Structure formats: C-alpha cells, structure tokens
Amino acid sequence: MIELETVEDISLEPEFPQNVENISVAVKNYVLFAKHKGKTHIFINPEHLPTALDYLSKQDLDYPVSFLEKVAFESLYNKFLEKKTDQELENISAEGEGEDFTLEEMNLSEFLRTSKDLLESEESAPVIKFVNSLFYQAIKKKASDIHIELHENKSIVRFRIDGALVKHADIDNKVANLIVSRIKVISNLDISEKRIPQDGRTQVKIAGKTIDTRVSVLPTYYGERIVMRILMQSSDIPHLQELGFEPSLTSKLDELVKHSHGMILVTGPTGSGKSTTLHAFLQQVATPDINIITVEDPVEYKADNINQIQVNPKVGLTFASGLRSILRQDPDVVMVGEIRDSETAEISVQAALTGHLVFSTLHTNNATASITRLMDMGVEKFLITSSIIGVIAQRLVRKLCKSCKKEDRITIEYAEELGLPLGKPIFRAEGCAKCNYTGYSGRVAIGELFVMDEHIRQILKEDVSDYEIRKAAITSGMVPLSEQLKSLLLDGTTSIEEIIRIGVKDD
C-alpha cells in the first residue's frame, strides 16, 4: 500500500510545468499538476491509481506526489479540461480553413448524447470541434441562447448574453449548413427534412456539468436557422432570496407563497425572467409532504422534486386539459406555465378557490393590468378578488460595466419627457474587453408587487378603470417599475438608454 499525503484543497489551480512534454497525455492518465504550499505537486486519486502510476513510471518527473480527495480531484481535473479547451479553441477556425467537409464526416458516434464529457472528446473533425466550442463558449460567457443565422454571403453565430444578442463569429455558408446538420443529429431531428420547422432537445456534458439544451430549427430563404436555448438544471434554479429583488419585496413574496390556497401571478414580456421566478416559488414551497404538479409549454427547468407535464396539442394535451387532469391527482400546489385562454383562466381560478395554491404567468405590461386581462377572458370580478392573492410584474435590467462606464448628465429633453432631475450626474455605456464591448455586465431584477388587500377588494366592487386600480395599488404601498428604473439610473447602476428600452413610463 502506498503511503501518500492526502490533500483536500478544492481551490487548487492547474499548473503546466515546462518539463512535461504533453500535458494532455498526463491529464488523460489522471495525473494533475498544481501548486500546494508554494511548490508544484503531482496529484493523483486512489480511484485511478494503476493508470496514474503506469504513466508516472515512464516519466522522469521530480515533483512530490500526493493523493487528492475525490471532490477536489474532480474540480482540478475539470479546470484542466477547460484550460486545455481554451487553448485548442483558438485554433479551430484555422484548422477548418480550406478543408472540404462532407456530411459523412458528421455521422460519427453521437458522443454528445452519451455520458462522456464534451471536453474529453478527441473527435478531430473541425465541424464537430466547432459545435463543441459553441456550447463551451456559450456556457463560459453565461449565454442563454445560441443563434446560427444563414444569410446570402455568410452566416453569423450570435449569443444572447444579459438579454442582448452579441456577435460571436462569422462562418462560411457551406460550413454553416454542416454545423446545422450536426446539431440536428445530436438533437434527434431529421437531417433530410429542410422544409418544415423542427424542435428537439439535447444534453451535453461540459466540465462535469450536464447542460440541457432546447433546439429550434426554422427554414429561412437562405437555409435553416437554429436557436438553441440553454436550460438550467434543478440545482441551478435560484432560491427566492437569490432572484435579485429588493429585500422588502422578497420578504413580501415569501409571505405570499406561504398561503395554503389562492393564485399568484407573474407578469412581464418575454425574457423578463417569469419562468425562473415561478420555479423559485416552487422550490420555496417544495417539501416532502406536499404534492406539486406543473403543466408547461415547454418544460424549461427540470426539477427533481416536482412532477412536470409537457403540453402537447397534437394529442389534445393543452394547458386546460392538462390542468383538469392535474386536479384529479390530489395536488397541493399547481403551476400553469401560462394563462392563454378563457378556459385555462377559469379552471385556474376555480383551482385556487378550492384549496390549491396556483402559480401562473400572464402577458401584461404591469401588475394591475392582470385584473382587467382576466376580466377580458371572461372571469367574473368576484372570482378574481376571491382567488388572487398577489401579482408581481417584473423586468431584468442590464447593469453598466463597472470597468468602463462613463459619467454623463441628464439633458433637458430627458428631464422633461421622463420626469428626471435636470443636470443630475448619471452614467452611460462605453464598452471594453471585460464586457464584450457592450457596456453592460450582468442584470438586476426589479418588480412591482400588487397585493390583493381589503382596500383593493372594496374598490373592485365598483366599475373602475385600469388607472384607478393602479392608483389604489400605489396608495396601498406598491412601488411602480418606473420609480425603480429611475432609482437604478440615478444611483449609476444602469443607463438612460436601458431604462427607455425597458419602458420608464407607466402604462
């Protein structure tokens, strides 16, 4: 039995010693290098002992050898894979130039669909390398979507980062078509069908982490366009306290989700984080003694502790029919992906009135407009006041990059139009390498919370307009989105262009 020191340091960083000829071979044999106590050490793990010792016996390396605890070893191993991939990806474009690719090169083993880590793959076809790099770079840059668009003379790859599309690469149309075919293969889609839209899913494993990806293929004039949505796993779904709302708003939301029955709605435009907020609510209430069932289109975030149903209109499984079936499954909490029609609205309200806690979304510009939207769908006013306990309207606002933002002043034009203090110092986006030359880095969530209290219920007994409901809600303590946007501008968090993009005026 070999007696070696066992280290449990998870913060070790990869070292690339100059006297190690091929670091990739060392890593492949589970021999890692890192600084420990000021010296470069060789780290191995007992699980891979024969392989590591066989490699070391053939090398002339004068470094102390230590065992690394399993979790720390996996962490260091994945860091090695990432750094090695970073170096290799710089040469991808050069490798692909001047080569004539055929579709046959792409019919290789579906390694992206196996449990093998994408970064460990040694497939050499440049098209496959490029697809791998797209996933890797998208995860590294924290992109939510990958767009591949075909145009007349060239194709473009863009990432959606912090809600805005950023150009990633220009590629030749011939290569782009092969990339599209490769993505269709790993998503179980029909390569030969290029006339109709197709939807699929795929999973990739990058640096030990499994990434679920939703794929949409759409035929356009110059070829098929692909959008890949990178979805979160259950372990990545933020808790209510991590959503980024103001602490006072988070506290009120926490109180609302503790109700045993009633309906809580999340409203806002596409891309405002509604689905993430709904799943944060579900994780907040999820305990072993309650039954949670969702009906979604599509199932975006797979969670281990809830039962999720995927809408499928082709076989008659709609939000309404799915919701009816759910209510016969003895649920405590129900989540409806979106209330789109009067039937779904009616069943959701009835479920909230009969002892279930219901979460759902609506497409409205502000929180109070959800009342009139439900009335337009045919839900009686007295049912709305009895079932709804709260509505939150939310937005995701891009934050200025701290490294490059420049000071500016509010002009008379904006002061008059948006009700801002004239001449007050603010900041504008500039752009640097740290923020991908966008001027923004990260996003902050804001939300206006409309709580159905006794004061609002009394007002709704009369015929009132949207404006009167909104005025009453503000009197009851609701802070409008417009006020929060102005605060973010004046404290230097965001720019005037961003608050105009989001919509600073009350509707």
Report the end-to-end length measured between terminal Cα atoms.
74 Å
Strand order of the largest sheet: 13-12-14-15-11-16-19
How many strand elements? 19
Mean pLDDT: 84
Question: Main β-sheet: number of strands, strand sense, barrel status?
Answer: 7 strands, mixed
Helical amount: 25-40%
Structure characteristics:
globular, about 25% strand, 17 helices, alpha/beta, about 500 residues, six-stranded antiparallel sheet, seven-stranded mixed sheet, about 35% helix
What do these coordinates show?
The chain is of the alpha/beta class and 507 residues long. Helix content is 33%, strand content 25%. It has 17 helices and 19 strands. The chain has helices at 23-28, 49-57, 70-89, 92-96, 126-140, 173-186, 247-256, 274-285, 319-326, 342-353, 369-376, 381-387, 412-418, 454-459, 466-475, 481-490, 496-502; strands at residues 6-7, 32-36, 39-44, 65-68, 145-150, 155-161, 164-171, 198-206, 209-220, 223-231, 262-267, 292-296, 307-310, 333-336, 357-362, 388-400, 406-409, 425-428, 440-451. The strands form four sheets. Strands 13-12-14-15-11-16-19 form a seven-stranded mixed β-sheet, sandwiched between helices. Strand 9 and strand 10 (223-231) form a beta hairpin. Helix 5 packs across helix 6 (173-186) and helix 10 (342-353) crosses helix 12. Mean pLDDT is 84; it is low at 91-124.
